[in-house]
Design a protein that fits this description.
The chain is α/β, with parallel strands linked by helices and about 300 residues long. It has 2 domains: about 120 residues, no CATH class; about 170 residues, Rossmann fold (3-Layer(aba) Sandwich). Helix content is about 35%, strand content about 15%. It is built from 10 helices and 10 strands. Strands 7-6-5-8-9-10 form a 6-stranded parallel sheet, sandwiched between helices. A 4-stranded parallel sheet has the order 2-1-4-3, with helices on both faces. It is globular and about 70 Å long.
């Protein structure tokens, strides 16, 4: 059996669940530990139920046995003398790791943020992540109607909030710069001058600033959804034809689930500052660096000057 640790927000949970489906397809018995990472007061909620998803959950005892974490005194003494019998495999970095498919009898930890884990299951994954209609608010329906009324609708995601904290700042900072967004918007408008941009952000004051510096661009701010109801923002992103994503698994999925698979997806490169994250980029992504320089063409082919 594999116990897959669930962690992070909705975007990360979706990557983990997609890997779960692939492991199941390969015949593995897989259960989720959806408690360990969510015991802190500031933990984000598990939200896969918005897709009407259920999954097998590992018991506390199964997690304890796999991680050799029993608090009993005799087990603590044994670990002190002989070491921990830890059946755990932790994702080394953000790169695709095919060794994961060879594992069994393992407690698996990681984010697994690349479609390479499930690229042969696109239709099934797409169908699985269909938002429940009963969750749609009147405001969401109105936004959706407006998005669909514009042939060249473009989602823009600006992730601030937790990305601006001291803990995460070094990892996320200096990537999705003003220059990145300026260049992305310009690139879209060169192809589609009548594009209408829909701005999604967790910082309303920044949205006002962003619209002011792009006053000559048709930008509509999508408002009204708190982080807890962010899944509605992801749904609305997916209803756009084109996408400018932040270095966030949330907008990654908003674009991946997009209604028009021939639409443009513009993404930052690098994705994070801490490690190699190249595998998170999909073949259709147009990459722009923090200086606003275009690194790939519209088919995702890297420019020769950037080789």
């Amino acid at each position: 059996m594999i116990i897959l640790q669930m962690s992070g927000g909705l975007g990360n949970q979706m990557f983990q669940y997609a890997l779960y489906l692939k492991l199941k397809k390969l015949g593995r018995e897989v259960k989720f530990d959806d408690e360990t990472s969510y015991e802190l007061d500031n933990a984000r909620p598990v939200q896969l139920a918005v897709f009407d998803i259920t999954y097998p959950r590992a018991t506390r005892q199964e997690v304890t046995d796999m991680r050799d974490s029993s608090p009993a005194w005799k087990d603590r003494i044994r670990r002190k003398l002989k070491g921990r019998n830890l059946k755990q495999y932790t994702e080394a970095d953000y790169s695709y790791d095919e060794h994961i498919f060879e594992l069994d009898d393992t407690y698996l930890r990681g984010y697994f943020q690349t479609e390479k884990y499930f690229s042969d299951m696109r239709d099934e994954i797409y169908k699985t992540f269909t938002m429940r209609k009963d969750l749609m608010t009147e405001q969401t329906v109105q936004y959706e109607e407006d998005i669909l009324s514009n042939e060249q609708s473009v989602s823009i995601h600006i992730r601030r909030g937790d990305y601006m904290t001291i803990e995460g700042g070094e990892i996320y900072a200096g990537i999705c710069t003003d220059e990145f967004y300026d260049s992305a918007i310009k690139h879209v408008l060169e192809k589609y001058p009548d594009a209408v941009f829909y701005l999604f952000t967790n910082d309303s004051s920044w949205a006002e600033y962003f619209c002011n510096i792009h006053s000559d661009v048709n930008i509509k701010v999508v408002e009204g959804n708190t982080e807890y109801f962010g899944y509605l923002d992801m749904y609305l992103m997916s209803r756009c034809r084109h996408h400018i994503v932040a270095n966030s698994s949330f907008s990654w999925w908003g674009a991946w689930l997009g209604r028009d698979q021939s639409g443009m997806v513009i993404a930052p490169d690098p994705w994070f500052n801490c490690s190699n994250c190249a595998d998170i980029h999909t073949d259709r992504m147009i990459l722009i660096n923090p200086k606003g320089e275009l690194l790939t063409d519209d088919k995702g082919v890297r420019n020769e000057s950037e080789e």
